[in-house]
Amino acid sequence: MEEGPRTCGVDIAAGGEAQTVCAVRVGWRIIALHAWRESDLMETVARIVSIARALPADRIVIDATGVGAGVFDRLRELDLPAVPFNGAEGTDRTDASGVLRFLNKRAAAWWGMRELLHPHSPHPVTLPQDPELLRDLTCPRYKTDAAGGKLAVERKSELVKRLGRSPDKGDAVVMAFWSDDGAYESGYQVHTAETLRELTSPSEEEVSSEASAAAWNRRLWKEADRGRWLRERTQ
Prior knowledge:
- The chain is an alpha/beta fold.
- Helices cover about 40% and strands about 15% of the residues.
- It has ten helices and seven strands.
- α1 crosses α2 (about 70-75).
C-alpha cells in the first residue's frame, strides 16, 4: 500500500437528499469515496467503523456538529481515532504567504485544499475522476468578511442553491486533508511567488480604474482557474 497518513474524512448527512460520504485518503491520494443515504445513525457508525478498520485509519476527521456529534461520540467510545471538525470555529491559520487570514476553520480548510492543488505544488495530490466531486470543489465562492477583512467561503445554504444539492463529497475530501495543528501535513501550505503576485498585485487596467479597489477585490477572489487545477490532479 502507498505510504503516508491513512485518513478518513467523513461528512454526515443532515437529512433530505444529502448523503453521508467517507473519503478515504492514503498519502496524497484519495483512493475511495464511499457514499450512502441512511437515516439510522448507528448504521452509519457501523459503515464508518468497517471502512476505518479495513484501512486501517490513523485518523477519522468527522463533521461533529449537528447530527454528526452523536456519530463522533460513538466512534470515540469504540476507541477509534476520531477527530472533530467544526467549520464554524475560529482559527489562527493563515495561507502560505502569511497574508491571508480566515473567518473560520471551514474557510481555512477549503483554501488549504486549493493550495495543495496548485499546479506547482510538490505534493502529488490525486483525486478520483468523479464529476460530483469536481463540481463540489470548484463551485464555492470566496469573499472578504467586511468586519475583519478575513477570507470567508460562502455559506453552505448558498452553495446548495447553486449546486442543486449538498457538496458532500467535496466536504469529505477537504476534511480528509485537514489538520488542526498544521503539523500533520508536510508542506501543507503551498504557494509560489507567481501566485502570491496574483493575489497581491492589481493589473495596470485595475490600477487606472477609479474603482480599482473593488476591481482588485473581485480579481483576488475569483476562482476561474480552480477547475483546471483539479483536472490536472485527477487520476
